[in-house]
From TrEMBL:
InterPro entries xref list: CheY-like_superfamily, Diguanylate_Cyclase, GGDEF_dom, Nucleotide_cyclase, Rev_trsase/Diguanyl_cyclase, Sig_transdc_resp-reg_receiver
4-aspartylphosphate: residues bearing it: 191
Phosphoprotein found in the keyword field: yes
Ranges where the GGDEF domain occurs: 301-436
Domain of life: Bacteria
Name of the protein: Stage 0 sporulation protein A homolog
PANTHER family tied to this protein: DIGUANYLATE CYCLASE DGCM-RELATED, REGULATORY COMPONENTS OF SENSORY TRANSDUCTION SYSTEM
The organism of origin for this protein: Desulfofundulus luciae
SMART domains in UniProt: GGDEF (SM00267), REC (SM00448)
Keywords recorded for this protein, A-Z: Phosphoprotein
C-alpha cells in the first residue's frame, strides 16, 4: 500500500524556467513530492501551512528578491532546511538568513539532486527524532583530510581550522587508514587520486571496517563525470566536492555531515546504554567483545573478562525496596568505572550482574583488577549496607582470559560466569579464576 509511505514534499522556489524544468524532470517521484513556485509570497504560505519538508531555493541574480522570504525564515529560525542552487562559475550567493544544509550546482542532474535531498531529509529526520533530547557538550569536531598535494592540504585545512574544526592530515591511503583507526574522526575528506591505493580503494577499506564504516566520507576530485560519482557512491562515499573547492560549500557540507554523524552517534549511544546506570548494555558488549577478540587474535594479545554480581541482592531489595536497589546499582557503576583504565569498559550485563572487558590483560593483571574492585566495593558505604549479611554489601567476581580459558565470545562469558558462581559457593565477597578448558 504505497499510499501509506511518507514522501517528503520538496518546495522549489526559482524564477528560472531552466531550473524548474531540470528539477521537475530529474526528481525521483517514488521518494519525493514536488511543489513549484516562482513567488516568495507563495513559498511563505506553503511553509507556514507546514506543507514543505525542504526548500530548494535559487536566489535571483542579481538578488532583487522582495525580502519577505528572508524576514519570514529569520522569524522561523531552524524550521526548514534549505538546498541552495548555484552555478560553479558564479560567485557563491550570500544568503546569511538561510539555514543552508546543502548546495546543488547547475546543470542539475538526477544523481546530484537525489543525493542532496536524501542527505537533507535524513538529517532533518534525525533532528526531529532528537528534538526533545538536547545533545551533551562535545569537543571540537575532528576531520581527517587525505590529500597528497601539500598546497591543497594547507588551503583546505586552513578553511576548516578557521571554523574551530580539528584537522588531521594524511598524504596517502595507507596513512589515512592508520590514522582513521587510531583517531576515529567525525568526517573524512578523501582525494580520489592518491599515491598507492586510490581513494576508491581507501573508501572500500573504511566501509569494510566495523569500527569505521559509519564515518561519513566525501570525495574531493577534479573529475566531474557521472561514472566516477556512481563508482564513489557504490563504494560507500556520502558525497563529492569538485576541485577547486569553494570554501563556503566545503563548510556547509562539512557541518551538515558532522551534524548528521553527531545525531546518529547519539541514537546509537542511546540504543547501546543501560538507562539506569549509564553503562553500556548487553547489546554493545556483544559488538565490543567480538571486535576485541578479533584484535586479540590478530596481534596475539590476551583479553580478560570479569563478571561481577552483587551478593544477596534480592535480600537488599526485599529489605530496602527497589529504589534503594537501583541506587546501589548506580553507585556500583560509578565505582567500577572509576577503578579501571581508559581502554577498559564496564557493561551492565543484566539485573545485578556487571561485566568488565580488559584488552591486553593477562590472568595476573585481571586478578589484580578483580581484587581491587572487590575491596573498593567492600569498603564503600552503601545506603543500608549494614542490613546485609555480614553487615556490608559485597560482590563476587569471576575472571576469564583469552586464550587461556576460552577462544570465543560465548566461551569467555561462560567461563567467567562459572568462575563467579564458584566464588559464591566458596563464601562470596571474593573472586575466582576460570579453569583451562579440557
Amino acid at each position: 500500500m504505497a499510499g501509506l509511505f511518507f514522501h517528503p514534499l520538496v518546495l522549489l522556489l526559482s524564477g528560472s524556467h531552466e531550473t524548474i524544468t531540470a528539477v521537475a524532470s530529474q526528481m525521483d517521484y517514488e521518494l519525493f513530492n514536488l511543489l513549484i513556485t516562482i513567488r516568495e509570497e507563495e513559498a511563505i504560505e506553503a511553509i507556514r501551512r507546514g506543507w514543505s519538508d525542504v526548500l530548494i531555493f535559487e536566489p535571483p541574480n542579481p538578488q532583487h528578491h522582495s525580502g519577505c522570504l528572508s524576514l519570514f525564515l529569520q522569524e522561523q529560525g531552524d524550521a526548514l532546511p534549505v538546498i541552495l542552487i548555484t552555478s560553479p562559475q558564479d560567485l557563491f550567493p550570500e544568503c546569511p538568513w538561510l539555514r543552508v544544509y546543502e548546495v546543488l550546482h547547475k546543470p542539475i542532474n538526477r544523481l546530484d539532486l537525489s543525493a542532496r535531498l536524501k542527505s537533507v531529509v535524513t538529517l532533518r529526520q534525525l533532528e526531529k527524532q532528537l528534538a526533545d533530547q538536547p545533545l551533551g557538550p562535545r569537543g571540537a569536531a575532528r576531520v581527517l583530510l587525505v590529500e597528497d598535494s601539500p598546497l591543497q592540504r594547507k588551503i583546505l585545512a586552513g578553511y576548516l581550522a578557521g571554523e574551530g574544526i580539528e584537522v588531521i592530515t594524511a598524504a596517502d591511503g595507507a596513512e589515512a587508514l592508520r590514522i582513521a583507526e587510531q583517531q576515529r574522526p567525525d568526517l573524512i575528506l578523501l582525494d580520489v587520486v592518491l599515491p598507492g591505493m586510490d581513494g576508491f580503494e581507501v573508501c572500500r577499506h573504511l566501509k569494510e571496517n566495523t569500527g569505521l564504516k559509519d564515518i561519513p566520507v566525501v570525495f574531493i576530485t577534479s573529475r566531474q563525470g557521472r561514472e566516477e560519482k556512481i563508482r564513489g557512491l557504490e563504494c560507500g562515499a556520502d558525497d563529492f566536492l569538485i576541485k577547486p573547492v569553494d570554501k563556503r560549500e566545503l563548510l556547509i557540507r562539512t557541518h551538515s555531515l558532522i551534524r548528521r554523524k553527531q545525531l546518529t552517534d547519539t541514537l546509537v549511544n542511546q540504543a547501546s546504554r543501560d538507562p539506569l546506570t549509564g553503562l553500556f548494555n548487553r547489546r554493545q558488549l556483544a559488538l565490543d567483545l567480538q571486535r576485541e577478540l578479533s584484535r586479540a587474535k590478530r596481534y596475539s594479545t590476551p583479553l580478560a573478562l570479569i563478571m561481577a554480581d552483587v551478593d544477596f541482592f534480592k535480600n537488599y531489595n526485599d529489605t530496602n525496596g527497589h529504589l534503594a536497589g537501583d541506587e546501589v546499582l548506580r553507585q556500583l557503576a560509578g565505582l567500577f568505572v572509576s577503578s579501571i583504565r581508559d581502554m577498559d569498559t564496564v557493561y551492565r550485563y543484566g539485573g545485578e550482574e556487571f561485566i568488565i572487558l580488559l584488552p591486553q590483560t593477562d590472568p595476573a593483571g585481571a586478578v589484580t583488577v578483580a581484587e581491587k574492585l572487590r575491596r573498593k566495593v567492600e569498603k564503600h558505604s552503601f545506603p543500608h549496607g549494614e542490613k546485609q549479611p555480614g553487615g556490608r554489601l559485597t560482590i563476587s567476581l569471576g575472571v576469564a582470559v583469552y586464550p587461556d580459558h576460552a577462544r570465543d565470545a560465548e566461551g569467555l562469558i561462560l567461563a567467567a560466569d562459572r568462575a563467579m558462581y564458584r566464588a559464591k559457593k566458596e563464601g562470596r565477597n571474593r573472586y575466582a579464576t576460570a579453569t583451562s578448558p579440557g
